[in-house]
Amino acid sequence: PGDQEAGELGLAAVPGRQAAFRQGLEAAVHYARAVGCPRIHVMAGRVPLGTDRAAVAGEMETTFIENLRYTADLLSQEDMIGLLEPINNRITDPRYYLNTPHQAAAILEKVGRPNLKLQLDLFHCQIMDGNLSRNLETYFPLIGHIQIAQVPGRHEPNSPGELNYPYIFELLESLGYTGYVGCEYAPRGE
């Protein structure tokens, strides 16, 4: 994730931080290998403070694609998958570079490597775009991992909220999803 105390949340798309990204990736591969984890979340990072998103978007995309190709080559040697997670910029992180499944899919297409996949967090997807059924169907071939939380409070999936997880789980099963579903939420209680 980079230097979180300095406000970083990933480095893969941050211009000028390529060396630090690669060093962090190598450490992540070392740890993943040690624990037998075949997937690594490749965090895009934030738009630099004081810069306009539109003004740096092209440079960030170029950096991201370059780093993702490097990542794919390294991970292929380890038989690992790299995961890109769009994080909503409406509630969670206004400066995070990768915000929607559509943006992630376009970048994955440009990179063109089969060992890079979409980590679809349904909380973020619902905040940014809604239409989860269609988005799951559309992006299913790209999905390498799914995470869940209830919307709007990012609490337990079975707490009151917008998302009907029994329906979503049935849809995932009908689509043929066989991976894990990670729970990433803030507990309402203890």
Automatic annotation (TrEMBL):
Cross-referenced Gene3D superfamilies: Divalent-metal-dependent TIM barrel enzymes
InterPro entries from the UniProt entry: Sugar_Epim/Isomerase, Xyl_isomerase-like_sf, Xyl_isomerase-like_TIM-brl
GO biological process: glyoxylate metabolic process
Keywords: Isomerase
A GO molecular function held by the record: hydroxypyruvate isomerase activity
Domain Xylose isomerase-like TIM barrel: from-to ranges: 10-186
Record bears the keyword Isomerase: yes
Pfam family, one: AP_endonuc_2
Entry-linked PANTHER family: HYDROXYPYRUVATE ISOMERASE-RELATED, ISOMERASE
Protein name: HYI isomerase
Origin species: Tichodroma muraria
